Amino acid sequence: MSGFHNVGNINMMAQQQMQQNRIKISVRNWQNATMNDLINFISRNARVAVFDAHVEGPLVIGYVNSKAEAESLMKWNGVRFAGSNLKFELLDNNGASAGTSDTISFLRGVLLKRYDPQTKLLNLGALHSDPELIQKGVFSSISTQSKMFPAMMKLASTEKSLIVESVNLADNQLKDISAISTLAQTFPNLKNLCLANNQIFRFRSLEVWKNKFKDLRELLMTNNPITTDKLYRTEMLRLFPKLVVLDNVIVRDEQKLQTVYSLPMKIQQFFFENDALGQSSTDFATNFLNLWDNNREQLLNLYSPQSQFSVSVDSTIPPSTVTDSDQTPAFGYYMSSSRNISKVSSEKSIQQRLSIGQESINSIFKTLPKT
């Protein structure tokens, strides 16, 4: 019995070892046939068995028994199947391709090397001259070049060790900011930004950043064609509302700016000078509304011969999406007396609907429905 038990253990260990050695792969461009057709095609032609296959979006995901089988399968990239060219990729345990994982690690390393935690500066200047980026082939094509910065920003947004207040993007051959526009999403609280020694020449290209960097204090744009435009300073102040220093020149009074963006006084519970005045005002409003509902003539004593009174009706009907809104309000009783200047165009009607003195005011009181 013990012998059979040992054999069972050996078999289990062998199976575990095979599971550990398995390589995860993906296949694209197979959709013109079934998944089973694809697996049989691979087995029949590449002599490689794909296990635990399943569909994830446009991919078929599965496993092969060894790295050697995976490498053998990669040689079949581009083979025709059901009218399309198959594409095989090696995946890590998270489903990312091996090449993608390497690129992420590489770009993360670049970010960390270029970050100074003491000054909270992320120095992304002169990326085109970076030997590591050149060797990696980042600038070998327009496609890879355009994807690099967004990828770096996505990584930066998840890297907790990067607490960035300043970014240097000088000497990057930038004609506009389309390639670096995601900077605003990654670092919305940026305080200092350098774009010096680039080729930016249009204000329109900067519009995507309008009001995005709400805490940007200093901007350096020297040696860009845009700086020679007579509207340069005006446009920069418009785009960045808290900008204080532009190209090493103070363009706003920082103390006044802070005053503008801070509340002039602490929020008070009441706006009355003292409790007695507050109580008197409350009593007046309460009594006025009570008499308006029950005996309007008694209110006439509050009006002098010079007092004026008019009614302004807003006949706008609220959207049906507003909860409990009245979609058929009855304005008929009020419209003939309404002096809403935005609705009444006749100067004569505007004058006629203004009541002056007790007698005239009493007349309009009587025309209004009881409440």
TrEMBL record:
Residues 23-92 form the Mex67 RNA recognition motif domain. Keywords: Cytoplasm, Leucine-rich repeat, mRNA transport, Nucleus, Repeat, Transport. One of its GO terms (biological process) is poly(A)+ mRNA export from nucleus. It comes from the Eukaryota. Coiled coil: none annotated. SUPFAM superfamilies: L domain-like, NTF2-like. The keyword Nucleus applies. Involved in the export of mRNA from the nucleus to the cytoplasm. Belongs to the NXF family. This is mRNA export factor MEX67.
